[in-house]
Amino acid sequence: MKDPAGAVAPAPPPGSGAGSPAPNGEAPTAPLPEHMSGLFSPTRARYLLLVAVLLLAGAFAGQIMHNVLLGSSWGAAMSRCLGEAPTAGTPAEFSDYLQNCTGPAEQRRALVSLAGASVVMALGVACLWVLPLRLLRRAGPMSVASAQWQEHAASVAAEMRVKRVPEVMWGSAWLNQPFTAGRPGRIRIVLPLGVRALPPAQADAILRHEVAHVAAGDVTLVWLTRGVWWALPPLLLVPAAGIVLQVWLQTRRNPLVPTFSHGFLWEYALRAGLLLAVAALVSQLVLRSREHEADLRSVRGRPTAGLEALLAGQPPRTRTWLQRGLANHPATESRLAVLRRAHLPLRVSLLDAAVIGLLSAMAMDAVTNMAETGFTGTPLIPYARLTGALVAGSLLAVGWGVAVWRGILADRAAAPLPRLALLVLGISMAAGLLVQLERTGTAARGSLFGWSLVGTVPLLTLGAGTLSVALARLWGWRRGGPHGSSWGWVAAVGANVALFVGALRIGQDGALFFAALGWSHVIDVIELSGLYSVSAASTALGLGGVALLALRSALRPDHAIGPPALPGQMPSLPGQMPALPGQMPALPGQEQRINLYAVTLGGVAAAAAVATRWAVEPPLARHNAVYSTQFDWWTAVCAGLVCLVVLLTLHGAGGLGDALYAAPLATILAAGPLWARHATSWHHPWGAAEHYAIGPLAQLALFLLVLAVPAALLPAYRIRQRRATLLGALLTAALTTAAVLALLHSGTGLLELT
Length: 754
Description:
Structural class: mainly alpha
C-alpha cells in the first residue's frame, strides 16, 4: 500500500528555508534554555498550582462528607468531653484534657479530609493514562508515516535532546489538528493528512512544534488539565447528593424542597463553584503557556519564517471576550507576538497574581485548620499555623516569586515594578481569606483571628512580593549568578520561600494579637509579632539568608546575566548593567562603588547608634539589666531602620534591593558591640549573643515588610555618586542619632507591654 504521506518530505533541503541553521549574525528569537527549565518554566510552575487546586478541592469535599456521615458522632464526642471535663485545676490542665479527649474524633475528621484529597488526586493521575488512549482511539484509523518523516522526527528529537523518539502517525480524514499523545516510552505525533499539502517550511514547523512538546515533558502532564473536569465535578457533587439522600431517609418525602431551602446547599455551591473557577483559570494558564513554550523551543536558534507563515496563514476569527477567555490555545496574534518578543510569556500576569493570591489564601486557612484538627492531642499542635504558612508560602514562592524572577531576568532586570499585579495579589489574598472553606455548613463565622487576619496577611504578603521583586532585580541587574544553574535555581526558590513564609507567620501572629488586644494596642502588637515573637528565631534566620543572598548578588564580580540581545538591541558590555527606564547607563565598575556605598551607610548607621547608646544611659536602665538589654535591642533595630529609610529617601524604590543587605548589616554591626560591652557580666554569653542577633533582626523583618509596600509606590531614581555618598552618610548619622536619643528618652513606652 502506498504510504499516505506520498513523496512530500517534511523538511526542506539542507541549507534552505526554515530547516537550515540561523545565518551568522542573526540572533535567535527564543530565550536561553534556562528560562524554560524546571520551575523557571511558566508551565511547570502552573502545574504545581493545578495540583494544589485538586488537593484543596478534594480535602474540602472530604470535610463536607465527614460532616454528612459522621457529624453526629463527632458532635457527641465533643459534648461528652466537655461534660466530663474536670472543673478544678488550671486552664492549662483543662486544655490538655480537652485536647486528649477530643483528639481521636478530631484526627478522624482530618483523615477523612485527607482521604478526599487522595481520591481526587488519584482520579486526576488516572486521567493521565486513560484520556490519551481515548483520544488516540477517537482519532480514527491511523497509519504510520513514511521512513522519511520518521528520520526527520528523529533528527529534530536529537536536536532537542529527546531520548525516546516519538512515532509519527497520520490521522483519519476528519482530523484537522495535529496532536501528541501516548504514554511515557511510546509517544505518538498524530498529523492531519492536510499537512502533506503544506509548504515544506510550514510542515517542518508543525513537526518541530509537536516534538517541542515532547522535549518539554508535558505530553502526559497536560492531561491533568482535562482530568480536572473528570475528577472535580463528580467528587464535589458527592456531598450534595449525600445531603439529599440524608434528607430523604429522614423525612421519606421529596428531598429537593427542604434541601434547596436550606442555606447550606447554597453555601456549598458557591464555594465549590469558586474552586472550579480557580481550577479552570489555572488550566487555561497551563494550556496557553505550554503552546508558547513549544513555539519558542521549536524555533530556538533557527529562523521563525516557517512558523510565522503557518500562523499568519490561518483564517481570521472573530471571537467574543467569553470565547477568548475559554479558548485552550492562545490567539494567533499572541503567538506571533511571543515569537518576536520571547520574554513576554515569562512575565507575571494579572491573572497569575489573582489566581495565586486566591489559592494561597484559601490553602493557608484550610491547611491551618486541618493541621489544628489533625494535631489535636499530639505534641505537634503548636506547629499547626506554621504548617499552613509553609504550604501557602511555598505556593506564593512558586506562583509569584519564581514568576517574577524569570520575568525580570528575561528582561535583563530592567522591567518596571509590577505595581498593578502586586495590588491584584493583595486583593485576591484578602478575598481568599474570606472564603473559609472549613466553615461551610457550620454555625461558626470567622476564625480565631477574626477580621484582623484580612488586615495583616495581605499587607505583609504585598511587602514580601515587593521584596522578592527587589531581590530579583538585584540578582539579575547587579552581577548575580546564572539563574539557570543549580545555585541560581535553589537561591530563587529558597529566598522566596523565606520571604513569603516569614511574612505569613508574622501576619498570623499580628492577627492573633490584634484579635486579643484590639487595634488600639498597635505598639504592643508590633513588638509581640517581631522582637518577642515565638517565631523570632526562624524570622531572623530567613532575613539573614535573604540578606546574604542580596549581598552576594551585589558584590559578586561576575558578568551581567540575561538573554542575548534581540535584533535591534545593543548588547550589554561585560560588567555593564542595563539602565533602568529614565536612567543613564552605568559604566563598568560603577556598580561596585554603589554597592560599597550602601554597605558604608550600614556601617555609619551602626556606628552612630552604638556611639549614642554608649554616651547616654537612661536612669531607667542604670540599675535594671532587663531594661538595659531591651534598650540595646531597640538601638540595633533603629540602626537598620534608619538605613532602610535613608536608602528609600535617596533612591526611591531602587534603594529597596540595597536595603535588603545594608539594613540587616547595620543591625548586626550595632548589636555586636552592644553585646560585647556586657560580655564579661553574662552568665551565658553565647545565649545572650543569640538573643541580641535574633530579636532585632526579627523586628527589622517586620519593618522591612511593612515599609516595602509604600516603597513600591515610589519611582526609582538615582543621584550622583559623590553627592549620594556625602548626603547619605550625613543623613544616616543624623537620623540614627535622633532615633536612638528618642528611644532612650521614651521611658517604658517600648519596653513594657500594656
